[in-house]
Write a structure and sequence with these properties.
Length: 261
C-alpha cells in the first residue's frame, strides 16, 4: 500500500511511518525538518520517500504534491498529522496565537487535502472500484470537551473534526473513506513541554499501533485511550454551566506557576 504521512519528522507521525515501513508499505513522509525525515528514510531504503514541506505554504505543498505523484503515481492512505499546540492565557489575550494555531492545524490540513484528493482518486482509477482509499486527519480528544487554556488548540481540532465529517458525506459516493483520529495524551515533543498532569499517557508506538489498526479497518473515527475519551465524551452531554463548574478545579490561578490537571 502507498501512504502519505505529514508531520512525520517526530512523535506520532514518525512512529506511524516506522511501523508502516516495517510492514513493507511504501511511505511518503513530509514535515519541515528535512534532516529528521532523511534519517527515517535511511532506516528503510527504497520504502520511505522524503517530501519536505511546510503545510501552511500552499505553493510548497503543490510542489510536494507533484513530486509525490511523479514518484508514487497514486496513494491508498493519507494521514494528515502535522500539527502544533499552544495554550491560551485568558488574562493576556493574544489573537496572533490563535492565527498561528489555526493556520497550522486547520488551514494546513485543508491545504494538504488539496494535494491528497487527486492522488487518492488516482488510486480508485488504477486499482478499480472495489478499492477504497482512506483520507485521515489527526484531530484530538481535546475537541470532545472545551478545556481550560485550550481555546485555540481545541477550536482548531474541532474545526478539523467538522471538516472531516463533512468530507465523509461529500466523498462517500466517490468511494473514498474519511477517518478522524482523536488521540488522548501521547508522549511526544508536543506534550513534553506541558506543565500539568497528563492522565492515561501512551507511547508513540502504542498510538501508532492503534492508528494503524484503525486505518486497516477503515474506521470512521479512531480515538484512544478509551479510559480517557469515553469520560470526555460523556461529560460533554452535561448542561454547559455544570461542565464549566465541574472544570473549575482545573483552571490555573493567576499566582500559580504550573497548570493543575
Ligand atoms: N501528543 C499528543 O498528546 C497529541 C494528542 C492529540 C492530538 N495530537 C496531534 O497529533 C499530531 C502529531 O503531534 P505529536 O504529538 O506527534 O507532536 P510532534 O512530535 O511535535 O509532531 C508534530 C509534527 O508536525 C510537523 N509540523 C508542525 N508544523 C508543521 C508545518 N507547518 N508544516 C509541516 N509539518 C509541520 C512537525 O514537523 P516539523 O516541525 O519538522 O515541521 C512534526 O513532525 C498533531 O496534529 C497533534 O495536534 C497529539
Amino acid at each position: 500500500m502507498k501512504y502519505w504521512i505529514t508531520g512525520a519528522s517526530s512523535g506520532i507521525g514518525q512512529a506511524l511511518a516506522e511501523q508502516l515501513a516495517g510492514q513493507g508499505h511504501e511511505v511518503a513522509v513530509s514535515a519541515r525538518s528535512e534532516a529528521s525525515l532523511q534519517a527515517l528514510a535511511a532506516r528503510y531504503p527504497g520504502q520511505v520517500q522524503v517530501f519536505p514541506t511546510d503545510t501552511t505554504d500552499r505553493q510548497a505543498l503543490a510542489h510536494a504534491g507533484t513530486q509525490i505523484r511523479a514518484r508514487f503515481e497514486h496513494l491508498d492512505v493519507v494521514v494528515l498529522n502535522a500539527g502544533t499546540c499552544e495554550y491560551v492565557d485568558a488574562a493576556d489575550w493574544d489573537s496572533e496565537l490563535f492565527e498561528r494555531v489555526m493556520r497550522t492545524n486547520f488551514q494546513g490540513t485543508v491545504n494538504c487535502i488539496e494535494q491528497a484528493l487527486p492522488l487518492l482518486r488516482a488510486g480508485r482509477r488504477i486499482r478499480g472500484a472495489r478499492h477504497r482509499p482512506v483520507l485521515a486527519a489527526v484531530a484530538s480528544s481535546a475537541a470532545y470537551l472545551a478545556l481550560t487554556r485550550a481555546e485555540a488548540y481545541g477550536a482548531s481540532k474541532a474545526a478539523v473534526q467538522y471538516l472531516m465529517e463533512g468530507l465523509r458525506v461529500d466523498l462517500w459516493a466517490e468511494g473514498i473513506d474519511v477517518c478522524v483520529i482523536n488521540p488522548g495524551f501521547v508522549d511526544t515533543p508536543l506534550t513534553a513541554v506541558n506543565d500539568f498532569p497528563m492522565p492515561a499517557m501512551l507511547s508513540t508506538e502504542q498510538a501508532a499501533t492503534l492508528i494503524r489498526r484503525g486505518l486497516e479497518r477503515h474506521r470512521a473515527v479512531i480515538d484512544f485511550p478509551k479510559r480517557l475519551t469515553w469520560p470526555l465524551r460523556a461529560l460533554r452531554h452535561l448542561p454547559p454551566k455544570w461542565r464549566a463548574r465541574l472544570l473549575q478545579p482545573t483552571v490555573r490561578k493567576p499566582d500559580e506557576g504550573a497548570s493543575p490537571p
